[in-house]
Write a structure and sequence with these properties.
The complex is a heterodimer. Chain A is an alpha+beta fold. Chain A has a domain of 125 residues. Helix content of chain A is 53%, strand content 11%. In chain A, strand 3 and strand 4 form a beta hairpin. The N and C termini of chain A lie far apart (43 Å). Chain B is α/β, with parallel strands linked by helices. Chain B has a five-stranded parallel β-sheet with strand order 3-2-1-4-5. Chain B has seven helices and five strands; from the N terminus they run E-H-H-E-H-H-E-H-H-E-H-E. Chain B is globular, with a radius of gyration of 15 Å. Chain B has one domain: 5'-nuclease (Rossmann fold, 3-Layer(aba) Sandwich). In chain B, helix 5 crosses helix 6. In chain B, helix 7 links the parallel strand 4 and strand 5. Classes of the chains: A alpha+beta, B alpha/beta. Chains A and B meet through helix 1, strand 2 and helix 7 of A and helix 2 and helix 3 of B.
């Protein structure tokens, strides 16, 4: 069938890119504004979550983890997060990282703030390799949440300890040094 | 106690991703930066190929006169592993190219897809063509 759209293929592609970006940034607000499109994208993103093997999450469980994490990050942005909530948010981050579906909007700074609340201090302030215990559960998994900071978790993703490597934290800046060096 | 990192996050970085990272005015610069930061944060194993290095270097030489991409790459202290495309991988890419004549993909595009498949890696790229050629692209939605 002939494509009768008045939009060029390039414009259509750009529109799709912008819509996906907007949904990825804030799925809830997007779905409130455009519920029809939001429903379609939810199915698309559910499929992505469904592909996750690590925790055997269903699509709905994955989306629930994301919604719940979004709420905790909002609280963190308003400096209203408790240490227990920060710990819970980090566990959700680990699940979503392991499933390869932590949205990019949950960025380095957001995770760094969660760590600071959970630990009571910034990981950057640590000057030697440190392991901070949180529970006596049996460690089974490890997930890097930011460079140089690894969560040690039980099989069901409960936080056992946080391992901090100051050398890896410092290394991050040099690994980013080439970003945006061309300004022409 | 033995623990394991359940997701290896192996990723091949292609020409479009490097250019978006390097060039501050690129449309995809901020998204590329966010994706690269995530890859650094999860300690992903990062790869590129010598073909991609040449493509990026040619672009830089044409547009900036002075920067050498291999010098830029060396600032990452070996974090990004440059895989040399061997005879076998090159031949596979040519075979795909010949059997997909209607596509405007290049040899480098095909070597990237074949390399990513061989490494069981995702491909960090803004070239949508690669998704149609079988690559699993990140950032998702591009």
């Amino acid at each position: 069938m002939k494509n009768k759209s008045p939009l060029s293929a390039a414009t259509q592609k750009e529109l799709v890119r912008l819509v996906l970006e907007a949904y990825d940034r804030d799925p809830l607000s997007f779905s409130n504004l455009l519920p029809g499109v939001g429903n379609i994208l939810q199915v698309v993103f559910e499929k992505k979550v469904l592909s996750a093997q690590a925790f055997g999450m269903t699509g709905k469980e994955g989306l629930e983890q994301m919604r719940s994490l979004d709420e905790l990050i909002d609280k963190s942005n308003q400096a209203q997060l408790t240490a227990d909530e920060a710990k819970s948010a980090l566990e959700k981050c680990a699940i979503l990282i392991d499933s390869d579906c932590l949205p990019l909007r949950v960025d380095h700074d957001s995770i760094r703030r969660l760590l600071a609340v959970a630990l009571g201090y910034s990981p950057k302030s640590v000057d030697q390799k440190t392991d901070v215990p949180f529970s006596t559960e049996k460690p089974a998994r490890e997930v890097f949440v930011i460079r140089g900071v690894k969560l040690i978790l039980s099989w069901d993703y409960k936080l056992v300890s946080i391992s901090i490597s100051p050398a890896d934290i410092k290394e991050r800046n040099s690994l980013l040094s080439f970003i945006g060096i061309i300004r022409t | 106690m033995q623990t394991f990192n359940t997701f290896p996050h192996a990723t091949v970085i292609d020409t479009t991703a490097f250019l978006s990272l390097l060039w501050q005015n690129d449309t995809n610069h901020l998204r590329a930066k966010a994706q690269y930061e995530r890859l650094l944060d999860v300690h992903a194993k990062l790869y590129t190929s010598n073909y991609i290095v040449l493509e990026v270097d040619n672009w830089i030489q044409e547009h900036t006169k002075g920067e050498i991409f291999l010098d830029i790459l060396s600032s990452t202290k070996g974090l990004i592993d440059v895989v040399y495309i061997d005879r076998n991988l090159h031949a596979q890419a040519i075979q795909h190219l010949k059997s997909n004549k209607e596509s405007d993909a290049t040899v480098t595009d095909w070597t990237t897809v074949v390399l990513a498949t061989r490494l069981k890696a995702k491909t960090f790229s803004f070239n949508q063509k690669l998704a149609n050629m079988g690559a699993l692209l990140i950032p998702f939605g591009e």
